[in-house]
Every structure is written in C-alpha cells, then in structure tokens.
Amino acid sequence: MKVGIDKLHFASSQLYVDMSELALARQAEPDKYLIGIGQSQMAVVPPSQDAVTLAANAAAPMLTEADIAAIDLLIVATESGVDNSKAAAIYVAKLLGLNRRVRTIELKEACYAATAGVKLAQSHVQVHPDKKALVIGTDIARYGLHTPGEPTQGGGAMAMLISAEPQVLALTDDSVVLSQDVMDFWRPIYQTTALVDGKYSSNIYIDYFQDVFKGYLAQTSTTIANFKALVFHLPYTKMGLKALRSVLPLATPTQQQALLAHFDCARSLNRKVGNLYTGSLYLSLLSLLLTDAKLQPGDLIGLFSYGSGAEGEFYTGHLQPGYQRGLDLGLPQRLANRRRVSVPEYEALFEAQLKLDPADQAIAFQDDPHRFVLTGQINEQRQYLDQWA
Ligand code: HMG
C-alpha cells in the first residue's frame, strides 16, 4: 500500500513588499536581495492573520466532506504559536469543522516540525489506511525591521492531506535524521522576533544537508543520479542553491544542469513569498510540481527539511500519475493578484500586531479577503471569525 501526500494547498497574505524597494530603503544594492539572497517579493502578513487563521485558510479550500469525515489526526506545526498551553490545532479543527473524534496536536522544532508531522502522519495512515491525517505548517517569519534577517522574513501556511493511495507523492519508508543542540536561531519566550546568528545558521544548514543526504545515499545504496529533483527548506532561496551546489560534484555535468533547472522551478514561488518557516520546504515542493513541465510520474523527489536548533531530515517520495489533481493550481495567479505595499506601509503593518497585553483589543480585519480572520482579543481570548458564515 502506498501512503503519502494526497493534496497540498497554500495560504499567505494578500500583501507583499517588493524586494528592490526594500533594499533601497535599507541602503542596500537591490541585487543583494534579488540575487545574493534570492528573493524578489516578500509576503507582508497583516495583523488579522496569525498562525491559526493562516492554517485554516490553507486547509479549507482543499477539503471535501469525505476528507473531513476521514481525518482523525490534525497536526499543526508552528513556531509562531498563539498560546503556551493550548494547541493551535484545536482552534484550527473548530474553524475547519473537523469532527470531535480527531486527535489535535501542535508540534514544534523550528522549521523542521512540519516534516515530523508528515512522517508521523505517514506512520499513522500506514496503520489506519481508511483514515486521513491533516498536517499544516504555519508561520510568520519575523526578525525585525532594519536587521540583517529582515529580507528573509515572510509568512504563510501549507496544508497537506496524508492518505493511502495518495494523488501527489507516495513516500518511501527511508529517511535519515540528524538532531543536535546548536544555537544558530532561537526565540526566547519573551521575544516576538527571532534571535539568529545568520552566517553560522547558513553554515550549519549546509553541514546538516551534507550529513543527511550523504547518509541517505549510503543507507539506501542510491546515487544522486536516481533523483529527478531535490527540494529544500528555503529560508531564502539562495540558501537552497548553496546546499544543492555543495553536492553537485557527485553528479555528471548533464545531471548537474538538470538538477539546477529543477531547482529553479522549485524556488520560483518561494522567491515571491519569503521564509514561512515550517511550510517553506512544502511550498518549494508545490512550486516544483506547479511550474516544472519536465516531471513525470514515478520520478524520485528528495526533500531536505531543516529546523534551527537544530534538526534535519532527508527523505524521499515518488511522483504519482495525475499528481496535478492534488495541487493548489490557483496559487500562481493568487500570488500575482496580491497588492504591493510601500515600505512605510509594510513597517506600519509589522508594528501593528496583536499586543502581548491582557487588555481587550480590536483588529481592523475588514480589508482582509481571507475567509478566516483574527478580529482581536476579548477577556484574554483570541477572537476568530469565519467571514463566510
Ligand atoms: P547579510 O550579512 O546581510 O548578507 O545577511 P551578506 O553580506 O552575507 O550577503 C548575502 C549574499 O548577498 C552574499 O552571497 C553576498 O555576496 C551577496 P553569498 O556569499 O552568501 O553567496 N551580495 C550580492 N549579490 C549580488 N549583488 C550584490 C550583492 N551584495 C551582496 N550587489 C543572512 C544574510 C542570510 C545571514 C541574513 O539575512 C540572516 O541572518 N537571515 C536569517 C537567518 C537565515 O535565514 N539562515 C538560514 C539557515 S537557518 C534556517 O534555514 C532555519 C530558519 O528558517 C529558522 C527555523 O528553522 O525556524 C532560519
């Protein structure tokens, strides 16, 4: 029996900032952001969206009534949690109308956690093939205005339905994991923005990729030639390119060109969104599947997941016939339809988040076109609204 990703659907903000404009405002050369970092646009998440609403907005459009009836596991992976105790998954389950017999949990290990969710869901469905698991990686990447990390912000959520006989990607049972205590990026509980040793984190990322990728080749007796494409967690798209380049000497010149061309497809949508932490690898997978005309059913895709702190995993799946049926086909158009905000508008939205304060607060949500929005806080409880109800 095959188990894997049956559907993928993405949600982010209707707003973005242009990276050339941001570069000029920060006295940087536009090419530093466009080429050196590898980002052309960055999602600007308004205060009416948080990890819960992004997750619900990502999942709702892809779920049929039959899916909802079959889902008995909801995993929300996030490092942008809205509560220190209650799982974001409980709110998401309510917004999505999931049934009461669903196991709802929140997972955390920086950007890696959605991969832990996918692998746990895979095992769950292998044991219960008549059930489905919903895994959502949802985050808002925040480093702060005028910081070196600023051009690597962004946000969004990727929802994935894991099932038997999946439409998109049948996962293999092989994977290699690496987990060690590394202080490359972290966010103490009193911080709303991440602390990061940027250059160090980028070096650790490559070390982890080398370790788990080469470990995978050795463990499974595969070579780089077996892979049609390699997809990466993309905190900024140049990061994945650097990691890919680090293993290209294992491939022939023709294979190198092919892997680089597939990578260009795999980063094309991430270039327009920025980092979304847990969902980033899976946006890259979706980007590959939506934009690469050279893929074929049966192709072996390798996925590198990295979460600071640090944990990495390399795992694989085979592309399924008719995989397009499980994809978020409208995503490129939705990204093209977003509204460009000026740098001052982006800065104002950055500062306008719900305050970490017990007082009642109201959020202007009327311009947010998404179905699920955060409207504020009353009696220290977040208020979520389904605008379609
Ligand atoms: P920086 O120090 O401002 O940038 O910060 P830089 O000076 O290193 O320049 C960046 C690149 O632009 C360099 O290329 C420059 O040469 C190039 P590289 O040497 O890296 O190939 N450059 C230019 N290129 C073309 N034309 C020009 C030009 N000028 C310069 N005119 C840094 C960069 C990424 C460190 C910073 O943005 C940062 O700290 N970001 C956050 C940390 C991060 O994303 N780390 C990635 C690995 S860790 C990870 O992936 C986990 C994470 O997602 C969190 C989680 O797990 O939850 C972050």
Automatic annotation (TrEMBL):
<dbReference type="InterPro" id="IPR011554">
    <property type="entry name" value="HMG_CoA_synthase_prok"/>
</dbReference>
<dbReference type="InterPro" id="IPR016039">
    <property type="entry name" value="Thiolase-like"/>
</dbReference>
<dbReference type="InterPro" id="IPR013528">
    <property type="entry name" value="HMG_CoA_synth_N"/>
</dbReference>
<dbReference type="Pfam" id="PF08540">
    <property type="entry name" value="HMG_CoA_synt_C"/>
</dbReference>
<dbReference type="GO" id="GO:0004421">
    <property type="term" value="F:hydroxymethylglutaryl-CoA synthase activity"/>
</dbReference>
<keyword id="KW-0808">Transferase</keyword>
<protein>
    <submittedName>
        <fullName>Hydroxymethylglutaryl-CoA synthase</fullName>
        <ecNumber>2.3.3.10</ecNumber>
    </submittedName>
</protein>
<comment type="similarity">
    <text>Belongs to the thiolase-like superfamily. HMG-CoA synthase family.</text>
</comment>
<dbReference type="InterPro" id="IPR013746">
    <property type="entry name" value="HMG_CoA_synt_C_dom"/>
</dbReference>
<feature type="domain" description="Hydroxymethylglutaryl-coenzyme A synthase N-terminal">
    <location>
        <begin position="2"/>
        <end position="164"/>
    </location>
</feature>
<feature type="domain" description="Hydroxymethylglutaryl-coenzyme A synthase C-terminal">
    <location>
        <begin position="267"/>
        <end position="351"/>
    </location>
</feature>
<dbReference type="Pfam" id="PF01154">
    <property type="entry name" value="HMG_CoA_synt_N"/>
</dbReference>
<keyword id="KW-0012">Acyltransferase</keyword>
